[in-house]
């Protein structure tokens, strides 16, 4: 999203719906930055420890909002649950114009190092 003329990144909970990405948010900067027709980018990463493969997908597109009653009912029925309290009753749909991604094997030596959450902390 572009906020005050600069790109910004926001964490969101999302769902894929009919080839689009949908996320919930509250009123404010994130919603303002995702005004209908505005350019947006979305990235998601994942790791499968059973196969030792990671993947990354990036989507560029435009922001849209549900307008018809059918679109609104379909959007609010999606399984998107906010992690923080508060009224997150606004939904934004990203309509992709460009999708890229990759899948790659993680080197065994990279998995031996502790993650940030596993690292010991100084007391």
From TrEMBL:
Q: Which InterPro entries match?
A: Pyridox_Oxase-rel (IPR024747), Split_barrel_FMN-bd (IPR012349)
Q: What organism is listed for this UniProt entry?
A: Arthrobacter crystallopoietes BAB-32
Protein known as: Pyridoxamine 5'-phosphate oxidase family protein
Q: Which Gene3D superfamilies match?
A: Electron Transport, Fmn-binding Protein, Chain A
Q: Which domain of life is it from?
A: Bacteria
